[in-house]
## 1
Amino acid sequence: MKQEEERLTSGQVGSIVKMLGLTTDREFNCTECLQNVSEFAESQLAGKPVTEIIARVEQHLALCPECSEEYDALRKILQAGQ
Ligand SMILES: [Zn+2]
């Protein structure tokens, strides 16, 4: 029984990965990412130069599947509007 308890489920692995992602980028959380994700999406589509904030959004998106989903949805909306 003890061994069963120590085994990680895929859900637990997911939250550990997420936790690690959030701790490596403590200063830039999901709220900040989502505040800047539209700027990131627009600059990607327009091929604008990457600013510091854009680079941080990109870094956060690589670590955070939830924000990544938001970005995908936003990008689709922006592309449809072009
Ligand atoms: Zn996030």
## 2
Amino acid sequence: MSDDTNRQAAPDDPERRDVLKFAAAGALGAVYAGLVGYPVYKYLASPIEKAAAETVVTEMVVEGGAALPKNAALMFKFGAKPAMLIHHEDGSYSALSAVCTHLGCTASYEPDQKRIFCACHGGVYDALTGANVSGPPPKPLTAFKVQVTDGKIVVRRA
Ligand code: FES
């Protein structure tokens, strides 16, 4: 028997060290590729997903909207984005996007002050029109058309 066939790698064998270095580099490369690749994938894929979600929904029935008491709001999803239906004291309705025009936080209706408030930076909007009233929001909330048909609340893009 020769020495080569019975030879086992010793822990400090340079050949074994190279194999371990190669495996560690491969694992590190895979982790790095995941860390860099996933955000890039999400960045590139998200506009397509968003566009698909936005183009599909132009009109919808707000479930539970007809049962909404006065001076109350109901949050719902219009496509992929949060929106709110507000039933005003005079019996009218308004439907607005709930995505704050400042940095995109979700705004909500405050019945005690009859306003829409974004808690992220104190943005205030008019509950009837969605107009930006105070704080950092640079423009109004998107308003939708509201129609009451056969006891159902239908919301559509204006
Ligand atoms: S994100 Fe709404 S006020 Fe800043």
## 3
Amino acid sequence: MPDQLQKSLTATLDEVRAWLEDLRALGLHDLQVADLRELQPCPPGIVGVDRGGDFGCRQETLEEIRADLGECQRCPLCRNRTHIVFGAGIASSRIVFVGGAPGKAADTTGEPLAGELFDRILFAMGLDRSSVYTCEVVMCRSEHRPPHQDEIAACLPFLQRQLAVIAPQVIVAMGEIPSRVLMGEKEEFSRVRGRWFKYQGVDVMPTFDPAYLLLHPHEKREAWSDLKEVLQRLRRED
Ligand code: SF4
């Protein structure tokens, strides 16, 4: 056997031996393959906890997700941003509004879906920012272009984890990006807008992005019709 390969195998066996010794020190003397499967990490949104040797899982918090995100450089959009636009609002909200990517105002303020039109939409629904949760699929601004697929993929786990924590009754997907991402299909936005679908068991209403409505004000009537459906569904679940 060549020397290099011999060294590499020896190092790997040393690592496995040290790992098994650690597990034995934790009290796992009769380790079976099934035991190893049970040592898989907790599912997304859930963190492992050690309560004095009693291992279990619990729901992570929004603060923990934000801390994990840190000064994120997981995709090239980190170079352009002023602020990371992490979700904002209350963790117990029954409704979450998801935008696609921060516009100029959101990038400047760090507030998801920042802008007067979105605030007016909330007001018309009898809501305000303090009674809902808002977030974006991609948290850093991509100036003059939509985010690329790899940028969405890099940021998406943080959206999924936020939604798992909030566990709302209704999600409003504001525009094409959140609608596609939550639906997981490449349906034309014009075909899915205004039609309920489910994401992880939660009702999702795809409607227009406020930035699009600013450029196409004639669509506001359609958007309001979608949002009235959202209000009806929330009332039905009261
Ligand atoms: S867009 Fe998301 S993944 Fe990319 S740098 Fe910003 S926070 Fe990180």
